[in-house]
Design brief:
Largest sheet: 3 strands, antiparallel
Number of domains: 2
Number of helices: 6
Helix content: 55-70%
Radius of gyration: 22 Å
Strand content: 5-15%
Structural class: mainly alpha
């Protein structure tokens, strides 16, 4: 985070001089100290976050692909007059295997970002999702999103166990 703060300082200044660099180092260090002292940041957490970047990028790629596929399906359904008349919206209730609140939150938002589905309710490990068509509900249970998030949770558990030793 310290490096990110310093880079942001340089970008926002638009030029690099000795005074700007020195002042940026001091200011970035002061903001980072404040974050460590009052917001619970630590160098260890920063390093763990950097290690997770490849998994996060992979998840964003999967999300993008699913959004594109759902967009194509919804557009095809709406533009085809016969299919549009046969749309049968449905509310689906299902449970997830995800353990962390963050992962559940990400899953709920991923479902909502995907065209044709909206997360109506998330309570504990139970979701209620509105699907534009019954066919969209088939992919909710054990979805590609949930599988990716489960892998991420498992990876985090492995790292935590390694840090306890």
């Amino acid at each position: 985070m310290l490096l990110v703060l310093f880079i942001l300082w340089l970008v926002f200044n638009g030029r690099i001089t000795l005074e700007i660099v020195l002042f940026g180092i001091v200011l970035s260090a002061a903001v980072y100290w404040f974050c460590v002292k009052f917001l619970g940041y630590s160098l260890r957490k920063d390093i763990e976050t950097v290690k997770r970047i490849p998994m996060i990028i992979k998840y964003c790629g999967v999300l993008f692909i699913e959004i594109v596929k759902a967009n194509a399906f919804v557009a095809k359904t709406i533009l085809n007059k016969k299919r549009a008349e046969e749309i049968s919206p449905v509310l689906v209730k299902f449970k997830t295997k995800l353990k962390t609140k963050t992962a559940r939150f990400v899953l709920a938002n991923s479902i909502t970002l995907t065209p044709g589905t909206i997360t109506v309710k998330l309570e504990g490990d139970e979701y209620v999702v509105h699907c534009l068509d019954r066919s969209l509900s088939k992919g909710l249970v054990d979805s590609v999103f949930e599988r990716q998030l489960l892998k991420m949770e498992e990876n985090i558990k492995m790292e935590d166990k390694g840090n306890e030793s």
